[in-house]
Every structure is written in structure tokens, then in C-alpha cells.
Amino acid sequence: MPNQPPAPAASSGSLKDWCRLLFVLLSFLALLPLIGVLSIILVGPLKPKFDLQSGEVQYLNIAADNITGTAAASITLTIRLVFIADNPNKMEMKYGESRFAVLYNDIPLGNGSIPGFFQGGHSAKQVVATIFVDGMRLLQDDATGLINSSLNDQVYFQVLVDVNATTRVKNLYSPGVRVSVECDIMIRPREQTLTSKPCEDV
Predict the structure, then answer these.
(1) Pseudo-torsion of CA 12, 17, 18, 19, nearest 10°?
(2) Can you give the pLDDT of all 202 residues of the chain as single tens digits?
(3) pTM of the predicted model, to two decimals?
(4) What distance in Å separates the CA atoms of residue 130 and residue 109, rounded to the nearest whole number?
(5) Where are the domains of the chain?
(6) Alpha-helical segments (H) within the chain
(7) What are the φ and ψ backbone dihedral angles of 29, each rounded to 5 degrees?
(8) How far apart are CA 125 and CA 84, in angstroms?
(9) Is the domain 45-201 a CATH 2.60.40 member?
């Protein structure tokens, strides 16, 4: 009686191929989160956004000074500004020291800073900065403009924000990104109030 022919090996080989393919697919899916983390670390994070939410004038004094015969004016100012920092990344962000400066007609008057801080992924955080101007003296056209603006109860300033940030995953840090924005503010000396416009990247 003739022997039965062996079962074809094709089905066994096909099953092994499917198992290998399934293993590769599952391995790739397991590595996807790691690939995403590495891409953020190597390429760099998205820039966080800073915008001015509100401001408060704590002290303001603008005085004319024509003793030398040249138009001059001095300004002493303390303002408290509340910014919103928005982290668009999934990962936690680490910020370095944030620096703030106030200018009049592009002339630096004073500055302030806050220490570094951490911010969770996809979150918004209030950042409060106090900026001081201590008896800054302006001359000629700038002094005249400042005095006239004060008399008209509308003095315009620029606020510059400079921040360095990086994302953190456990003990791994991405390349840093720099955030620089400019915010226009207007102060009414009589009422000691402050209004602002949306900040813009610079």
C-alpha cells in the first residue's frame, strides 16, 4: 500500500511568516512612544507662548527737570504684570530665568525677572513679574514727549519678554528654544491704570 504523502509545508511556513510579521508590527507599535520622545528631544519642542493678561500700576511719578537748560524729565515706575505661559507640547517644560524690560520710545527704562519654573504639558500657567524704573532721566525730544503724554493722560510703553525653555522627559532634555515677545501697554497717570494690547513675537 503506498505511503501517504506528507502534508504540504507551505501552510507551516506561512504561519511562521505571519507570526514574524505580527511580532515586527507589535514591536514597532511598542516603540512609537519612544520614537516620539526622541524626535522631540532631537528636533526640539514647539515654542511656548507668552501673552499679557493684566497689569497694575503700583507707583508712577513723571517730573519735568529743566535745571540745566535742556529739556529733561525723570520717571519712576513700578508695574506688576500678569502673563499667561502656554505650553503646546505634550512634555513638561523647564523655563530658565525669565527677563522683562520696559521701554519708552525704544529707550530701556527698567527691568525685572522671575526665577525658572516647570510647566506641565498642554497647560497654561500664570507668570507674575514686577518691573521697576528708578528715576530714569530722559532728555530733549524724549523728555518733551513724555511730559506731553503725561499731561494728555496717555503714556505708551513697550514691554519685552525674553525666556529660554526646554522640554524634559525624565532626565532627558531637548534642545532649548528662545521666546521673545513685545507687548504694548498704555498707562494713564491720573488714574494710575494700565491697559495693553496682545503681545507679538519679535
Answers:
(1) 90
(2) 555 555 555 566 677 777 777 777 776 666 555 555 555 555 567 889 999 999 999 999 999 987 667 789 999 999 999 999 999 988 889 999 999 999 999 999 999 999 999 999 999 999 999 999 999 999 999 999 999 999 999 999 999 999 999 887 767 777 788 999 999 999 999 999 999 988 998 8
(3) 0.76
(4) 13
(5) 8-43, 45-201
(6) 10-43, 140-151
(7) -60, -40
(8) 6
(9) yes
